[in-house]
């Protein structure tokens, strides 16, 4: 099972690699000032999310390289699943904050294809905390097996 989990986490991350921050969405829906996202708080959140997303990706990659070079499997897959899920949900929370009600459409002329797709992707992302074990289960695994905390 640990190998399957590592593969799943790697595939999930690999699919996201190369994505750019959503500054283009922020400029479109929030506006810009001097070539930057107009809302300074949103701009900070976008930058922070990009940094944590990149750090997570590098950590997953390093772990994969260690395993391929003969390193022993660990319970880090639980941490990767938990953090990856939370990071993905944060990504869509940012998009919702940027797009507002335009990200809440299911059908109709008031929404373009990208907005309708974003709605479905956002709703799908909410299931990430349930798939492969809930976030609470992952936290318990981390507490017991990684941190060595008692039951």
Report on this model:
With 151 residues, this protein is mostly helical. It has one domain (2-146): Butyryl-CoA Dehydrogenase, subunit A, domain 3 (Up-down Bundle), CATH 1.20.140. The protein contains six helices and two strands, in the order H-H-E-E-H-H-H-H. The protein has a two-stranded antiparallel sheet. The chain is elongated, with a radius of gyration of 18 Å.
Features:
mainly alpha, elongated, 6 helices, 151 residues, disordered N terminus, Butyryl-CoA Dehydrogenase, subunit A, domain 3, two-stranded antiparallel sheet
Itemize the secondary structure elements and their pairings:
Elements: H1 2-16, H2 23-29, E1 32-33, E2 36-37, H3 40-68, H4 76-99, H5 113-125, H6 135-146
Antiparallel strand pairs: 1-2
Unreliable segments of 5+ consecutive residues: 1-19
Task: Enter the CATH topology name.
Answer: Butyryl-CoA Dehydrogenase, subunit A, domain 3
Total separate domains: 1
CATH architecture verdict: Up-down Bundle
Number of strands: 2
Beta content? under 5%
What percent of residues adopt helix (DSSP H or I)? 55-70%
Cα end-to-end separation: 22 Å
